[in-house]
Here is the input.
Amino acid sequence: MTAPAGAVRNRPAPPPPATRPAAPARRPGARARFAAVPLVGPGALYITLLVLVPVALITVYSFFERGRFGGVVWTFTLENFARLFDPLYLSVVGNSLVIAAVVTLLALLIGYPTALMITRLSPKWRTVALIAVLLPFWTNFLIRTYAWILLLNNAGWINQALQALGITDEPISMLYTPQAVVVGLLYMYLPLMILPLYSALAHQDRQLGEAATDLGASPFRVFRTVTVPLSIPGILTGCVFVFVPAMSNFVIPELIGGGKTVLVGNLIRDQFLKARDWPFGAALALVLTVSLLLLLVLQSRLSKRLTEGKTQAEGKKVRRDA
Amino acid sequence: MTMDTHAPAGRADARTDASVRPELLVLSGVSHSYGGVRALHDIDLTIGDNEFFALLGPSGCGKTTLLRSIAGFETPEAGTIALDGVDLVSTPAHKRPVNMMFQSYALFPHLSVERNVAYGLEAEGLGKAEVKRRVGEAIETVGLGTFARRRPSQLSGGQRQRVALARAIVKRPRLLLLDEPLSALDRKVRADMQLELKRMQHEVGMTFVVVTHDQEEAMSMADRVAVLDAGRVEQLDTPVGLYSTPRTRFVAEFIGSSSLFDGTATAGGVDVPGLAVLPAAHALPVGSAVTLVVRPEDIEVVAPGGAGLLEGVVIDTYFLGGSSTVSVAVPGREKPIGCTVHATSTARRGDAVGLRIDHTRSVVVADTRGTEPA
Here is the structure.
């Protein structure tokens, strides 16, 4: 809203005609606010309809009793939240946390060197590498997932290759295991780790590395004491980008995990579509949304504190120079 | 005369001084190119122990490449660089007993002043107490004691520069490389820092190699200056030597604000087309292309009409405090001629004047433009 308003305001005002000296001062502001409507409108409408309304609905639903065939009976209750502490559901949450954490950690371990390597390429190859990273996104999600099924199943390519090479006699069951879910999620969300890391690393001042080297730091020490600390905002962003969707994904556990590995996402889906317990599903969704939101807030706070020095210093510098 | 105000007379023996100094850094035949473009061309330089040495030249002359080759960030394609007789080229950058102060300072934004300065000592693996003591000393040396816990972003440009200097000298390198150390500072701070750097170089007893495009900076700080152009050393001399006896046209043009007269050598003078035959002492072959270099203080502004004078019209006068510069347009010459006049000039714009060149003090150099070696 401020951007278009500012743009209008910054436009050099036409010299006011001599006969009407003071053009109404508030006019440009009002016009700018009006001009902003078509720009902001669609986005605001989208967010209201597809984010705010559903969140409001699940918030309301989560405080009422379930209807017999789905829907909600309008009797207030906190039962839905109390059930979250049922060991059965807690174990699902725990499971999801572990899997999402493992996926995030693996994505970081694979993504960091990849992103670092991409920044060291020549501009031409950098573009090629970034396109390669993004390529899976342009392929249909189901096709990508079925490709993994083809690779991982007992008669799949990996098992065929292992047997052909004589490494194993019998096929190893890989599909429908928690590990397979991790692999599927990792494959799906790795680009979301690489891109923020790449952005953070590419914007790092190359001279800082040279300065550290010049001061006698070995390449590993430069990496540990300069490259990594300065990329922490990128690391945090990447981790949140991977952790949040990994935590709530339900398709991959279903297809690659064979429904045996139940994650929070599956649980929520099941409450709405199978158990017909909308209020409980809503409570689960609400808790998940709020937790992930808190995570985002935490991440942005941390990043801000890490980069804060700059903005704070500008203020101080002005005062000192005065 | 004015020359003395530019460089104290005591400096004149700096050249002999430098050759007496034990050799510290010896570069021989150093060449480098970027994608087929020659950045360094067979550079031979010897830098003495404890010397304040400047690499001076316009941007793109190769001075930074040379500095980065010494630091280890570029590997020259040919030639050797030896420090104390030990080959540097095969030593990785982080193992060279050489430190560099970067033009952008390259301070670690995530570390406090203290930790920035301590970085090099920690990399060396020194004990905590030792690191603490030396960091404290270095921070005191540059006068930043009260800022030790600040982040670089909380400092002014001049303070950041001091941190960068402290971080480099705390390692007690044999050789300190400074890449345009003063270019990011404003004029007033720059003048202070020039003196400070000079003082500090004496105090810590280190060899300084400064890269700069600012002739004034190089002339006021350095014991010796190598003027670089297009990857070649044009002249290696003391500031006084560079000023009084430039040996190439490039140096004459780059240093000071001399007027250059291109022409043909005659016996005992230079035939400047469109002007006159200007007398000058030289030993260059008659008929060769030469350039007569006349410093502004060697031209006297007199009344027109005398014998042997160049005649022209004053187009402007610039008051510089102790002296003025009178800019005179001479028919037959494109560029106006600058003359230094002591105290306030009586010449006004539009006055017809005569110019008397002190032929005993002018210099003739070969004009090698057009015959540049490839």
Observations:
- The two ends of chain A are 34 Å apart (CA to CA).
